[in-house]
Amino acid sequence: MNQASQMTVSDEVAIEITNMNKWYGTFHVLRDIDLTVQRGERIVICGPSGSGKSTLIRCINALEEHQKGKIVVDGTVLSSDLKNIDKIRSEVGMCFQHFNLFPHLTILENCTLAPIWVRKTPKKEAEEIAMHFLEKVKIPEQADKYPGQLSGGQQQRVAIARSLCMQPRIMLFDEPTSALDPEMIKEVLDTMIELAEEGMTMLCVTHEMGFARQVANRVIFMDAGQIVEQNEPEEFFNNPKSERTQLFLSQILGH
Amino acid sequence: MSDTHAQTVAFVRETQIPPSPPPVTEAGAVKWVRENLFSGVFNTVLTLVAIYFVARFAVFVFPWFYNGVWEASSRKECLDILDGATGACFAVLVDRWDHLVFGFKYPPDGYWRILVAFILLVVAAAPALFASLPRKLLFFTAFYPFLAFWLIWGGSLWFPLTILGLIIATVLVFRLISAQIPVNFRQIVSAVIGGICGIGLAYLLFIGAKELVFIANSVGTEGAIATIAYGVFWVMAVFAFVFCVPMGIFVGYAIYNSFEDGGLVSIVASLLFAYVAFSFLLAPIWMALNSVVPIELEAVASRDMGGFMLNMLLGTICVSLSVPLGILLALGRQSPMPLIKGVCVVFIEFIRGVPLITLLFVANVMLAYFLPPESNFDLILRVIIMITLFSAAYIAEVIRGGLAALPKGQYEAADSLGLNYNQATRLIILPQALKISIPGIVNVAVGLFKDTTLVSIISMFDLVGMIRGPIQNSTEWTSVYWEVYGFGALLFFVVCYSISQYSQWLERQLNTSHH
């Protein structure tokens, strides 16, 4: 029995992307993207490199600017208005492939920085929240160390905790396990699975197909800047419709 | 277990090998000497040659120091005492000590003021240099410049205190306006200010264009060169006409847009307040205060500052001003706003393209032509401005290197957490960029400190100016070179080496990678 089906998905819309297009110079990276994400939904986006999957989720919190189309996050329309962008960013957490922890701050300071400065949480309270989430990702004992002293897997879990400290309603993961040693991938995936079980809305760009099968409600396959296929994981893996998807899956699962 | 292993794999470790100490030849002084001095034939020869030259040098220098004469009133007396033996004439340092340190015009009964200012400088700098000291000491650091000004230049204590008071008042006005006046109102006024600035610029360009047309017409069209000049002026005039209106609109919009929350009003209003306060309130207030409670020291003119004190004065002030200015220039150069970026690029490239000596000459001589004859623009202030601008341009480029070295991910992480530009810059970007830039900044700071001796060529009597001028031109101490310049070198070495050691210590403190 698939675990995902036990988790509830509400009717409320978390993210709505309509007819979104993006160009890098003359290169058309994202073409006519239409995507609606319900609250509590867990979506895995996969595809060959250069297919625009990272760019897609980076458009959602305006790390990349889209030129055409409409993105609505949590009821806020994403425009060039800095206030809207800041509002969306404080609601949407993000984890990066290379963690991007702040190396000059301790783990605890990494986690309390944004709550203190953006949410104006008192320092003491922010530290309590941070310790709560560090316990959740199972590294409270590292709180006073610096990121450089931690292993890759630990750093990525800190990065997840750092995002969670802002108590976001949506989490974006941009290949969170791609820079990790095989032994460490599991600890990060376990954290993400736990997060999914609590009903967090998640968009993950990842090649961890086991994770996709276990957690996702929907798998999206992208190629050449377009959404080629999307389906429930069982159906997606066992019975891919498009030829491009079949080729991709045979290459990624074939060995 | 072992049975299965024996059947399926070739080897399985059952026990761990404990670590053991290294052999004797791998540790201690013997290893060091062998590796560093006698690691081969070539290095052995080099070591022996070096030992020979060091020994020769020591044999020559040691008697020079040992026989040194410390008490004499002139070089001739020194030579008489030495009576043909090799020996230094350190008596010049004793005789002219005050001049070397304080300059020859500073009133001798005011030397204690300089010493107190110097000791307090150490106290004031400590909390800024060592993060482990209590942060409350920074209040003294902020207060120190005003106290030091009074101690060194003399006059009434109320003068610097009134300046401090007016600065605080300006900050309060800024706070009041940005907290009390509603955002909508500030936005409207900001739009008006932006509009006026834009119209003003457009008008200036328009006048310039008219002037160019006038010049073009008066050049006439006779002769080839005149024709070319006529054409050039006309092209420039048309260019200015065509661009003045859009440029004005653009500038106005850019000014409005960069202060969307109406912050422009707070800035303009507090600047206006500062201008009025400093031109009309400063003198009456401090004079009134001084007549009630007179706290005065004998006033000393800037022209009378000299000796190593002048180098320290210029070095400290210019370094502490040029680092913040350099940071602003570096950030400005990275700005997406073309106006700010353009101004910063032009400033940096201009200053870097001009020698410091030229700037000092401009400060000393040229400015006098441009300023009204009765204006009394302090010479040291002019020199401080020029040296500060000069080193700020270099520091800006060093910091730009630090900014460029930061991975893009740091900016993205800060953005994705919802930090705004100011917060991201102050909390994430600058601490890391400055850490990377420490060696470069220290490089500029040490260079700047040594460059302060250049003021001797615009007839200010700093340490080098003192030696070249009053000391070597005096009848008693002509042709004394090694002793005085050696002393100068020693003073500069002590300061510069301390700066360098501090920066290395700081780098170790800030190293959080621990790999």
Automatic annotation (TrEMBL), chain A:
The keyword Nucleotide-binding applies. It comes from Litoreibacter albidus. SMART domains: AAA. One of its GO terms (molecular function) is ATP hydrolysis activity. Keywords: ATP-binding, Nucleotide-binding, Transport. PROSITE patterns: ABC_TRANSPORTER_1 (PS00211), ABC_TRANSPORTER_2 (PS50893). Residues 15-249 form the ABC transporter domain. Belongs to the ABC transporter superfamily. SUPFAM superfamilies: P-loop containing nucleoside triphosphate hydrolases. This is L-glutamine ABC transporter ATP-binding protein /L-glutamate ABC transporter ATP-binding protein /L-aspartate ABC transporter ATP-binding protein /L-asparagine ABC transporter ATP-binding protein. It comes from the Bacteria.
TrEMBL record, chain B:
It comes from the Bacteria. InterPro entries: AA_ABC_transptr_permease_3TM (IPR010065), ArtM/GltK/GlnP/TcyL/YhdX-like (IPR043429), MetI-like (IPR000515), MetI-like_sf (IPR035906). GO terms for molecular function: transmembrane transporter activity. It is found in: Cell inner membrane; Cell membrane. This is General L-amino acid transport system permease protein. The keyword Transmembrane applies. Residues 308-503 form the ABC transmembrane type-1 domain. NCBIfam families: HEQRo_perm_3TM. One of its GO terms (biological process) is amino acid transport. It comes from Litoreibacter albidus. It is a multi-pass membrane protein. CDD domains: TM_PBP2. Belongs to the binding-protein-dependent transport system permease family. HisMQ subfamily. It holds the Pfam family BPD_transp_1. Gene3D superfamilies: MetI-like (1.10.3720.10). GO terms for cellular component: ATP-binding cassette (ABC) transporter complex.
